[in-house]
Amino acid sequence: MQLIINTYGSYLHVEQSSFEIKADDKKKRVSAKKVDSILITTGAAISSDAVKLALENNIEIQFLDHFGRSMGKVWHSKLGSTTYIRRRQLELADSEEGTEIIKEIMIEKAENMIKHLYDLGIKRGEEKQNYLFETIEEMEKIKDKIPKLTGPVEIMRNSIMGYEGNISKRYFNALNYLLPDRYKFGKRTFRPAEDEFNCLLNYGYGVLYGKVEKALIIAGLDPYVGILHTDGYNKKSFVFDFIEIYRHHIDRIVMKLFSRKKVRKSYFDQIKGGVTLNKKGKEIFLTALNKYFDESIYYKGRQIKVNNTIQYDSHNLANRIIEEGD
What we know:
This protein is of the alpha/beta class. It is built from 10 helices and 12 strands.
């Protein structure tokens, strides 16, 4: 389970070898054996003993800002990229081998978006179904151009990102088409989001960034050495590359919340330039997210929890990079 600290003034410490949370004159005790990660989304205190207990049990502590972006993490010092894999990642950025990996990531991203629209379409009436299936057909045609690209990433970068952008534009137009009128949005907006839909997406992607970064580091991959996304100071370029496969999970969670009428205007606060999730909104969203990621699915030939698919793919990619470099 993920331990979420989202009450201002909470205190996380250790009591009888377990985590104990104090918030609003209430106490909750949780065994460390039941915790996979700790997510702190607001002003809270944490004792050094709680940090040590987390490290001893390989539990990540992650801090998010109010937009859902990861501000920092605490985890065991044994986690880290090997020098050889990091060197191989640097080589991939200048080779056709790197192009193949990025093409595969973008094709899988497109297929996941298409599958999401298809799943949404079979539950709708004929008019909406026809619109979604026409959109899927357009997305398929663009997706089919990606495998034909050849050459090193530096040459193919603009073409790959162009195809991905055109597919994503049609995808988000389709999601917008399905939303209730009062929640429809003009375009994808970021920090701050200008509307409730984009606010939920951005917050969810922020949580997802943390999951992807952790999985890459555990697998020995360097989150800062990107292939498609260019390197930059303090920029986790490879997280931006690899996360594309999994964004659809957040999209599914958000669309499900809207379709089941679980979203309320009261879950958002107005800020300069847009809206942000408030405490109640974060609670509703993170509960739905954790439930979703704890579900088991049939994935690439095996039964696995959604949350573990990222680690599974990260290890497979690390092994592939090592094997192809031998």
